[in-house]
Amino acid sequence: MTNRVVITGYGVVSAIGSNPEEFWGNLKAGKTGIGPISHFDATATGISVAAEVKDFPFDKYFEKKDARRMDLFSQYAVHASLDAMAMSGITEENTDYDRLGCIIASGIGGLEQSQKNSQALLKGPRKVSPMYVPLAIANMGTGNVSLRTGARGVSRAEVTACAAGSNAIGSAFREIKHGYADAMIAGGAEAAICELGIAGFANLTALTKETDPEKACIPFDKNRSGFVMGEGAGVLILESLEHAQARGANILAEIVGYGSTNDAYHMTTPSGIGAEKAMKLAIEEAGITAEDINYINAHGTSTHANEETEALAIHNVVGDKPYVSSTKALHGHALGATGGIEAVATVQALMHQYAPVNAGTTELDEGMTINVVLGEGRETEINYALSQDFGFGGHNAVLAFKKWDGK
């Protein structure tokens, strides 16, 4: 016997909003959060724009001392998780916290801590902060969220580059489905917009050099030129249907399938074959057919290497009927957090029956035989949706969601 798994809460920190209402308002309006880099002087890197979190509501959950004990990626993770917990209504009175787990992904962890302490090391080993390791290691998103919420169940961190957030949610789904947890806090967090992060991706020629925020991230467009670094966190609360109904929870959507594969092909260039297999696995586990999919939140990084293979995979699996958009044009590519942020966007799309626009894209590249949402979003029937992300190392993760219909 397996359990059905539903979503009862979500939280988000992003360039287009750090609460559900603001995030959805900008997502629906197609208002980008991309702008000039302000975290540091990026002139020497040749990169001028990023999707930075603006006006992060630090005081809502933190005190000044917390900034010394948590890297920014952990702060983002905790904020999104506490918002998600509040929305879900989970408390120690209605949930066994020994069966409440946590999986928060991060592709890089506290990258700025590595930058700062590497610079300090040049002045001598004793100049390295004793807090460097606990601030920087990638599992501390999970660790800090568990410390703040009291979740004592299944606990780990997914570190699969840009697929990590989706992998974390997929793993949490399986923990509940197979009875190892009643509820899970799952998603991803990242804060890598620092000189080391921007320089590293820029020298890999992965980032766009476009200076106009409206034209910087244009997924599937013939003139796309690289991705835009984002940051933030996206977290879902997953529960078994039985547990959610027993405590009278407000159910938002259902997660019904998960596909995880590896290309085993190239360090940074996708083959598309693994993505196609992951999509098929998610659809198969959901117990539906490709024709049932109405919307896909694509990986869509605004790079030729990703989108040529992703578009082909989408076409081969579901054809050209489902609406497709990449919300990275709005919140940027948040690396290990992007799957969490996009899962929130996909859940909101199901709740509002609305396919967000693929913002900024005006002319599809040749060969894009998929139904990309152009111009403005679409009010449309969405019963099943996919959210998919692919990462360096050949990682592929696809989540299948279902509209909650009360049954």
UniProtKB/TrEMBL annotation:
Keywords: Acyltransferase, Fatty acid biosynthesis, Fatty acid metabolism, Lipid biosynthesis, Lipid metabolism, Transferase. The keyword Lipid metabolism applies. CDD domains: KAS_I_II (cd00834). It catalyses: a fatty acyl-[ACP] + malonyl-[ACP] + H(+) = a 3-oxoacyl-[ACP] + holo-[ACP] + CO2; (9Z)-hexadecenoyl-[ACP] + malonyl-[ACP] + H(+) = 3-oxo-(11Z)-octadecenoyl-[ACP] + holo-[ACP] + CO2. It is an enzyme of class 2 (transferase). One of its GO terms (molecular function) is 3-oxoacyl-[acyl-carrier-protein] synthase activity. Its EC number is 2.3.1.179. Residues 2-403 form the Ketosynthase family 3 (KS3) domain. PROSITE patterns: KS3_2. Pathway: Lipid metabolism; fatty acid biosynthesis. The keyword Acyltransferase applies. Belongs to the thiolase-like superfamily. Beta-ketoacyl-ACP synthases family. NCBIfam families: fabF, PRK07314.1. Involved in the type II fatty acid elongation cycle. Catalyzes the elongation of a wide range of acyl-ACP by the addition of two carbons from malonyl-ACP to an acyl acceptor. Can efficiently catalyze the conversion of palmitoleoyl-ACP (cis-hexadec-9-enoyl-ACP) to cis-vaccenoyl-ACP (cis-octadec-11-enoyl-ACP), an essential step in the thermal regulation of fatty acid composition. This is 3-oxoacyl-[acyl-carrier-protein] synthase 2. The lineage of its organism: Bacteria, Bacillati, Bacillota, Bacilli, Lactobacillales.
